[in-house]
Amino acid sequence: MRHMLLQYDCRASKCLRLIFLLFDQMKRHAAARTVAARVKTNPDSFAKFASWIADKTFFAKLKLARQNPETDSSKELLALITKHIALFESQIPFTAAQRHASMSHLLGMIYYLGFPSDFFTFAVDDIYGLLNIRMSLPQFNNTSFPSTYSGLTEALKQGAQTFRHIPTTTPALRKLLAENPVAAAEIFRILVNSVYTNAIGMPPSQHAKKSVPLPDRAKGFAGVCTRAYGAMEDQKRESLHMHSVLFGSLPSTLLQYAAGIPFMQPCISKALENKIGTSLDPATHLRHLLNEIKGAPIERPSLFTAHNPRTEPEDFLKDVERTVDCCNVHRHTKSCFNKNHFQCRYARPQSTTWFTYWIQLQGTKKNSTASQLIRHPSRHFCS
After folding, report:
1. What is the CB neighbour count within 10 angstroms for residue 95?
2. What's the CA gap between 291 and 329, in Å, rounded?
3. What per-residue confidence (pLDDT) applies to 278?
4. Residue 213, exposed/middle/buried by CB under 10 A (0-12, 13-18, 19+)?
5. How many Å apart are CA 351 and CA 380, to the nearest integer?
């Protein structure tokens, strides 16, 4: 199936009916395998469910519950059915039950490893990603576009309207991406594998052929991690992104124990600063402000030429600062005020701090929800 979807002429990857058929077959086959396994391991549950189906009044109750889902009888019937459906529904990929069941996996990791030490989110520039564009177009040979870049990067940087008779405006690139969702999914898969393998130092479970002992594991940006967990979601524009938590490095328990030891606080702060940078060069800020005053368009980091962090560390640091300047400098949008019309839900802007410290989150007296937590930077404590 993968070989067919990645054919050079994009015939299969652009056929949305074929993609839906293959996706539906994958879910139905997974459901059939799961049900077969559950029947063999738990025959009593299936026998009880089969007896309900054989009852003549069952479908009448089911029809009544569908028409009036808020009644007590409908809720009781749903509770009875859910006990048996939930046994296999959580094993079917891309279902709400599977996403809900993954929470128990994460809680098990927290129970065994403690609370995570790092949380981060990453996404792909699916519109101006060069590989996205090339994979969305049919290929004719291995020496010309789209098999090679052939000037595509320069054309996009200069804001060209067309390239090789292909529209390169933002709406046209969005349409090109929507017509070939396989390319977007494949690029996101490559990105996830690269981030977990190179940046974190832990390949995804489906690519790990064996368990590597902790002393022999590769170091990532957060040090040597014992475990990592990621949850994939889609944005409103149907683009994929992933939230990840890392276990290891500097756990919260270590920060709590070190909070009461004064001479340990500078050491922990320095370790945090070496792992996660929260500042930019003043020249970068000045250039950002001048570009905003001039009304210059924001650069696309996906069009930059990346440098190797091991052989070219100084150039790589400039790449990071330039990327942060383009992507991580907060700009208020509609999503900032979804839940609160008067305050940004990302708590931006914030006052400038000149050193790294711990903060303690405390709930208000009226309501201790996460949206009303108070920060006390004067208390060197991490919660």
Report:
1. 15
2. 13
3. 74
4. exposed
5. 18
Q: Which two tokens stand for residue 156?
A: 């996009």
What element of type H or E holds 229?
strand 225-234
Residue 361 confidence (pLDDT): 62
**Can you list the alpha helix ranges (DSSP code H) found in the chain?**
2-5, 16-41, 43-54, 56-67, 72-89, 96-113, 130-135, 152-157, 170-179, 181-194, 252-259, 265-275, 282-294, 313-327
**pLDDT per residue as tens digits for the range 217-256:** 888 888 888 888 888 888 777 788 899 999 887 777 787 7
Residue 252 CB-density burial (10 A; 0-12 exposed, 13-18 middle, 19+ buried): middle
Q: Rounded distance, CA 84 to CA 39, Å?
A: 11
The answer, yes or no, to whether residue 180 has pLDDT greater than 60, is: yes
pLDDT digit string, tens, across residues 69-111 = 888 888 888 887 777 666 677 778 877 777 777 888 888 888 8
Q: Give 197's DSSP letter.
A: I
Radius of gyration of the chain (CA): 26
Q: How far is Cα 373 from Cα 227, in angstroms, rounded to an integer?
A: 29
